[in-house]
Amino acid sequence: MNFKLGITGKLLIWFFVIIAIFYGTILVLYIDVQQVVRLSEAIVEKNYTIASGTKKMSEALLTMEESKQKYKLLKKLDYLVFFNEAQHMLEENLSQVTLLSAMGYDIPRTWLDISDEYRTYPNAAEVSTYLAGEEKDPATVNSFWIPESIVNDWISKISSERVNNEREIEKTTRELHRQGRMSARNGLIGLAVSSFVGLLGILYLAYSMIRPLRDLMDGIREISSDSRHNPLEVRSKDEFGELAHAFNDLSKRLSKEERMRSDFISMLSHEIRTPLTSIRESVNMI
Q1: Which of 77, 148, 176, 192 has the most CB atoms around it within 10 Å of its CB?
Q2: Distance in angstroms (rounded) separating the CA atoms of residues 28 and 126
C-alpha cells in the first residue's frame, strides 16, 4: 500500500506529538500534586489532631489527678467540678484521635487501648449527673476516681505517642518537600522536552519546504536561461513531490517541443535552400 503523507498530515503529527508531551507532563504534575495534597491532608487531619490531642489529654489527666487529691483533702465539691471538666476535655480529644481510625488513617493501637481502659471507669456524663443531683453521697464519689498508677501509665503512653507523632510529622514534611521538588523538576523537564520537540518539528518542516522550493527555483532559472536542465529529484510524496513531478513533466514537454521546433526549422531551411539555389543559377544563366 502506497502511503501518502502530505504537509497537512506532517503538521498534524507534530501537533499531536507536542500535545501528547504537554498533556503527559500535566498528568505527571497532577499525580505529583495529588501526592502532595494527600501528604498535606495527613499532616493536617491526622498528625495535627494527635499533636493537639496529646497535649490536651496530658493536661486533662494531670488536672483530674490534681482535682482528685484536692477533693480528698478538702472535701470541696468545686474540685469534683474541675475533675468533671477535665474529664470532658479528655473524652473529647480521645474521641477525636480514635475517630481518625474510622476516617481511614492508620493510628497506633495505644489510643484504642487507652479508650478501652477508660470505658471501665465512670465517664464524664455520670459525674455530671451526680453533680446535677440533689443528694451527694460521698461513697459514690470514690467510684469516680481513676487510680494514680493508671493515670501515670496513660500520661507515659500519651507522651510517647506525642514524640512518635512529632517524628512522623518531620518525616512527612521531608517527603512533602521531596515531592514538591520532584513536581517542579518534572514540570521543567516536560517543558524542555516539549520545547525541544517543537523546535525540531519547526526545523524539519522548514527544511522539507524550503529545499524543494529552492530546487524548483533553480530549475526555473535553468529553463529561462536556455541551459540544459536536469530533472528535479523527487524526495517526498507530499505536495512538493507532486509539484516536482509536474515540473519534470513540463520540462520534458518543453524540451520535446524545443527539439521539434529545431527540427522543423532545419527541415524548412533545407527545403527552401534547394529551390532558391535553382532560381539563383537560372538568374545567373539569364
Answers
A1: 176
A2: 55
